[in-house]
Design a protein that fits this description.
Blueprint (H helix, E strand, L loop, with lengths): L1 E5 L10 E6 L2 E7 L23 H5 L12 H4 L13 E3 L5 H4 L11 E4 H13 L10 E4 L5 E3 L2 E7 L8 E7 L2 E5 L10 H13 L4 E5 L14 H13 L5 E5 L4 H13 L3 E4 L1 H10 L16 E4 L15 H4 L5 E2 L1 H6 L4 E4 L7 H5 L6 E5 L9 H12 L3 E4 L8 H11 L4 E4 L4 H7 L11 E3 L1
Parallel strand pairs: 3-4, 4-5, 5-6, 10-11, 11-19, 12-16, 12-17, 13-14, 13-16, 14-15, 17-18
Antiparallel strand pairs: 1-2, 1-20, 2-3, 7-8, 8-9, 9-10
Helix pairs in contact: 4-8, 6-7
The protein binds zinc ion (ZN).
The site of zinc ion has 6 residues, from helix 3.
Length: 450
């Protein structure tokens, strides 16, 4: 008997936790944290206490109380007794927070299967972020097309195009037939060929079920979305038509987007200025030759921005060891101020205070290359615009989504023809029913047998 139980990604975008059981095999696909998790109870400095492990999370039902899943120390102050692990594996589709972040609570004996690139991303996060620690794990890396046997199951990861490298869908060959899990995917990025390959392979399996993401399964799409190629073309126009500095805010781990701006800068005879975190990440990702990214230490088009720290004089000892590595590529606010027209600069919202030192010339350009805000009352969005107004920066919204739109999702389902569809990672499960007849809407914690 094969069954599916959903402990996350139910009626919301992200936080996927899918349990698949087949006879004795019990495997999770993704173990992420919902973007809104705990928002009703925790805010700002009021956050779950680390010392209480999972206790504060269980209080509000934020993670499932399952025996044999979590690390002993996480359960110390809870009413869930620690027992030896009774789950065989966790597979991660890609390194986004909403798919991986809760692996930190898992029993370290449970193997975590992930793409080679995903592991590099997780390690870079742990190195450069103080809040990120996944602990000692039994990681097992895979590549596309591998066939991984877990009990009676065979799991086949197949690469897909998404807004972060190392994204996979899974073909899960069970005793009742193949179950397809899409992970997150799109078909308008530079690697749409990978999504095509996934589609074909999934179709060939004549799947009994498909767990299908539905981020953009919406009645009317209000936000503007381009393809990655359009983002590159339009931002190229912004850069080529100004003699002033161009700032860019983007998702820090979207390497397709980085490559777009890298090329725009290079084609316009400008250097790209990146943060230390991006430099570290690139330094790790060049290990993966498939990704074809510039080496921050060797590439002449890349400069690394050092903020003032401690002494305020850019001395080596002011910085962490991992930060010191890029001192040969250093630029400071003074350099940026003097060379504005020769640069495209990554500038994350949380680093906006650097603008005070850089003093950009009035009429400089700012490209917001992220999703538009979800609500009109978005405070960060208001603050961002206050800063842009203050420094007289011209705003551009240029973004490509990481997800298939509604028509493409319907096309995917029609092509693969699964016997049943389980919508996940969506706020609109019901919309799937408008175009497909065999949709099983999901509820948190309910077990569905195939
Ligand atoms: Zn996601």
């Amino acid at each position: 008997m094969v069954s599916l139980t959903f402990y996350g990604g139910v009626d919301e975008i992200g936080g996927n936790k899918v349990l698949l059981e087949d006879n004795d095999a019990r495997v999770f696909f993704d173990f992420g944290q919902s973007f809104t998790m705990g928002g009703d109870f925790f805010t700002g400095w009021l956050s779950p206490r680390r010392i209480n492990g999972l206790g504060d999370y269980f209080e509000f039902g934020l993670l499932p109380k399952l025996k044999g899943l979590y690390a002993e120390k996480q359960l110390r102050f809870t009413d869930v007794p620690f027992v030896e692990p009774s789950f065989d594996a966790v597979f991660l589709s890609h390194p986004h927070f909403d798919h991986v972040n809760h692996i930190q609570f898992l029993d370290p004996e449970i193997p975590v299967y992930l793409g080679e690139g995903t592991k590099l991303f997780l390690e870079a996060m742990e190195k450069t972020s103080s809040f990120c620690n996944y602990g000692e794990r039994r990681y097992r890396t895979f590549r596309t097309g591998d066939k991984i046997k877990v009990g009676d199951l065979v799991v086949e990861p197949v690469h897909v195009d998404h807004s972060i490298p190392a994204a996979y869908g899974f073909l899960i060959h069970t005793s009742e037939g193949t179950v397809v899990y899409t992970g997150d995917l799109r078909a308008h990025g530079p690697r749409r060929d990978m999504t095509e390959e996934f589609k074909d392979k999934a179709c060939e399996c004549e799947p009994v079920a498909m767990i299908c993401e539905g981020t953009r399964m919406v009645e009317v799409e209000r936000r503007k979305n381009y393809s990655e190629q359009q983002v590159r073309t339009l931002s190229g126009k912004v850069v080529s038509s100004t003699s002033k500095i161009v700032f860019v805010t983007r998702y820090s781990r979207d390497m397709d987007r980085f490559r777009s701006f890298y090329n725009v800068a290079k084609n316009n005879g400008r250097k790209i200025v990146i943060s230390l975190k991006t430099a570290h990440l690139l330094g790790r990702l060049v290990e993966d030759k498939h990704l074809d990214l510039p080496d921050p230490l060797k590439d002449e088009n890349v400069r690394v921005y050092y903020k003032r720290k401690r002494s305020g004089e850019f001395k080596e000892k002011d910085y962490y060891n991992w930060e010191r590595e890029f001192m040969d590529k250093i630029v400071t606010y003074e350099f940026v101020r003097k060379n504005q027209g020769k640069l495209v600069m990554d500038l994350d919202f949380y680093q906006f205070a650097e603008l005070i030192d850089i003093k950009p010339n009035s009429g400089s350009q700012f490209i917001h290359s992220m999703s538009e805000p979800y609500s009109e009352e978005d405070i960060e969005d208001q603050v961002m615009h206050n800063w842009l107004d203050h420094f007289k920066l011209q705003f551009h919204q240029l973004h490509a989504s990481g997800h298939l739109n509604r028509d493409q999702l319907t096309g995917l389902i029609d092509y693969i023809k699964p016997k049943r569809i389980f919508p996940i990672h969506t706020e609109n499960q019901q919309l799937f029913k408008k175009t497909s007849s065999n949709v099983q809407t999901i509820r948190y914690g309910t077990e569905y047998t195939l």
